[in-house]
Amino acid sequence: MIDGPYFVFTLLGVLGTGLVAGVFCAFSTFVMKGLAALPPAQGVAAMQAINVTALMPAFMVVFVGSAVLCTVLAVVTFVLWPDEGTVELLLGSALYLFGSFGVTMVANVPRNEALAKMDPGTPEAAAYWPTFVSEWTMWNHARMVASAAAAISYVLALT
């Protein structure tokens, strides 16, 4: 069984990846649907405001902190190669680092940056908005599933 500081790190991994999964779940299940129901100018403006607010410490500590913690767990697991939980710890770390953090960097952030450059009331923004919502939400589903699977994997490592 995992114990000591390693147990604490794994437990924090469960918490962090689970919290991030919850945030992404909220966006996938109702936030993006609510924004999509608004007139494009309002939806674009609201998403731009959300994207600015998401960069504040309250979310970034959990999101980036979980990535750092997953990296630490992966490295420590490779170094210690424990008798139990090795596969689950490495899988959980990979799921979060690639499926959540990585997808965010290569799929969601570029779309956010493109949207940030647009004036919400322009025809360009109105034309881009449905594509943004569809593509951004599709990638958000992927990172939600990856974050939840990472949390489950870490829980399994503790059992």
From TrEMBL:
<keyword id="KW-0472">Membrane</keyword>
<dbReference type="Pfam" id="PF08592">
    <property type="entry name" value="Anthrone_oxy"/>
</dbReference>
<keyword id="KW-1133">Transmembrane helix</keyword>
<feature type="transmembrane region" description="Helical">
    <location>
        <begin position="87"/>
        <end position="109"/>
    </location>
</feature>
<feature type="transmembrane region" description="Helical">
    <location>
        <begin position="52"/>
        <end position="81"/>
    </location>
</feature>
<keyword id="KW-0812">Transmembrane</keyword>
<feature type="transmembrane region" description="Helical">
    <location>
        <begin position="6"/>
        <end position="31"/>
    </location>
</feature>
<protein>
    <submittedName>
        <fullName>DUF1772 domain-containing protein</fullName>
    </submittedName>
</protein>
<dbReference type="InterPro" id="IPR013901">
    <property type="entry name" value="Anthrone_oxy"/>
</dbReference>
